[in-house]
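User: structure tokens for this one?
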Amino acid sequence: MEHQVTLTEMLDARERRAFRQQELLRKYHSAMICFTMNIAGPVKNDPLILRGFQLGKRLLEERMDAMKIKPVYFEESSEVTGNEAFYVLDRDPVAIKRITSDVEDGSDLGRLFDMDVLREDGQKVDRTELGLSPRRCLVCGGPAKECSRSRIHSVTELQSRTKQILTEAIEETDAKDAARLAVRALLYEVCTTPKPGLVDRSNSGSHKDMDVFTFMDSASALFPYFETCARIGKQTSGQPAAKTFLQIRPAGKRAEADMFSATRGSNTHKGAIFSMGILCAALGRLPREQWKIPELILKECAAMTQGLTDSDFAGLTKETAVTTGQKLYLQYQITGIRGQVEAGLPAVQKAGLPVLKEGLARGLTINDAGCAALLALMASATDTNLIARSDIATQQKTVEHIKAILAETPYPDKQVLEQLDREFIQKNLSPGGSADLLSICYFLYFLESEA
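Assistant:
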């Protein structure tokens, strides 16, 4: 239940804040930012308000990082009376006020931020010293002090607008973060080198119609699609998971058209459009704090696609089977990426991601750990791309060869990988399905590390 703060509690909190400010100013003899939230009404803190506060910290710290400003001291607290953070900075307080004012004025969300800048003597730096106009009311856009003094807007009106601002800002941030990390994962995958038979920084593998730049063009074109998937996931989070999947499928078709337009007809990321789109939608369905837990994300992917294989391949016959995936399903019951996602991507969860993380823990570069993860994925999942470029016997023989290499070491050196690359190119083999799974491993690793 939300805690409604009393006037006494608020006055006590303000007194404690002022006392702490003076303690820090006396200790460090430097300027300080005191960051709190402008929240109307008796409820000063809840999960939504806390997320808004965390976004404010992120925006402020990104600006400070860009200016190469590191706090001398930092602390934060989250109480029922609100959230607050102190940044002690050995910089000119007027210059600091310029930064905080830019953050406050930079978006609707900024109207909820109260970033006071204190001089060494405890005096506040006023916006007028920078030639800036007074803060604006979050409801009508007029001078905030005048609206507050005359109480033009009711508490209910202010609370409603506050909730709207926080909700929209958080949804936008989450969707863009999901898309940014998805695109980053695709770029890391293509840049991982050497990869047998695949496009990388050294060569185009077994592909004549694309190179590393083609993949970069494609990945860049897919950012809006991934953002859309995350938004759809959020908007449908209260509905059954399967509903979310059905709603992103039309967006996936449009994304394929964007990909082919960006690559002039080359199929760089068709598989990733399917699988990565599902992951972005799963993120939209989940609370942000669960983005760091791969098992929960993959479980949500499985829930979204439950029954997909049976549904997509229902009534399939030799006469109606057109794609390689359809033909392999009819002949060998190979379910491909559909089966992987429907099962919660076990190859990623049990092979690729653990190998990637273990390699990094051993001190390998993300490139070298990624190369090993790719081989582990090839050994763990049936790559239909390999079969499409040869036959099932060749695919099985190739997998046995990979397993023999990994039996000697889970992290083969560059010479072994380059030899594999030559062999794959000679046979015109390309494990594109495994490459898509590698990008998912990178994506989950980024989420676990940064989200």
